[in-house]
Fold:
Amino acid sequence: MLGPYVHRIDPILFDIAGVHLWWYGLGFALGFLELHLFLRRRHSKPDLSLREVWSLSLFITIGVLVGGRAVEIAFDEWPFYREHLGLIPAYWLGGMATHGLMLGGAVGAGLFALWYRKSFLLLADTLVIPTAFLMGIGRLGNFIDGQIVGAVTEVWWAVKFPDADGFRHPVVLYDGAKNLLLMAYLMRVRRVNTTPGGTGARFVFWYAFPRFFIDLFRDYPTHRLAFGTGQTLNIAMALLGVALLYRSRLRRLGRLKNNLVATRSTGGLLNAAPLASQRIAFICLLVFCLTIPSNWTQDIPSRYGKRHAGLEYSWLYPMIDTAPPPAEPQVLNQFPGRFEIGAFGVDPNGEPDAGPDRHTGGQDQALSSRSARAWIPGLRWPWQSGPQ
Structure:
């Protein structure tokens, strides 16, 4: 009989001259490669020449990498990067936000459409299909990395992740399966719905709306507006999807004008060979993706040393502390000098609190707050999970 699974997967594919190549980064490389091959097979539908296919692949790849990094730093890990600005370009330490990947991809597609005078809506209807594949296979990389974990559970398919207490929901596998099913659904929509922007609108909504419920099983390390940081973006993306679906319906009913002004690639231009510089740049980006270890910035030897022997600190992989700081709830101080905000770790009797006062990105988020609960019976912080 199947039972709970203990996660012991080595996250590193192999090492080259002190540089580690990761399963997580392989997900990006395979996703970008599939996007490129998909566009080469379907380039006539959005009216792209072969050279333009290579250009679009570069625009999307760069947009995804920059967008994922920028949103992760700005929304999730700014307290760390504010003190370590020099590490912002250090992709090889990790740190990529899922919603930022899609935002960056959309910006890249938009810039390509402006530069080459193509219809953004037609491009989006084509691109969202390989994008769903990229997001699906990327979740397999998340699972191998073991950084994103779900809530503690007793279901038979639960997973014991390397850096989390107890058996957890493999929430990234739930989301990955959703993304792959979404890809199949979008392929069908694209065949039967010819309204420009209709397929893209469905991707935006059906990516975010189910994910909100999947993420209810997720143990988020950081929070915003009483939700996990990703949940607020899920809500915003789902609302955007509703607006885009409404506009798509108006467009289909003829109540909204289709603005599809674009240049057409004809004759020799349609089969123009890609430039050598395009090929080299794309291959270099695929190789660079392999160096990305995780969605969260990591102290590489400390985090992965137990799963991959021989990891050492170096100028590429320095010793850093990337644990998200605990939030500080605003509690009315009725006992001056005995319980102060920011003084976690001291109980009402002045004794040291043995409970943890920090948590890492994949661990149970129990804050050291026994002192507060001692004064306020039944108090339970909103970010805490598990029995108290």
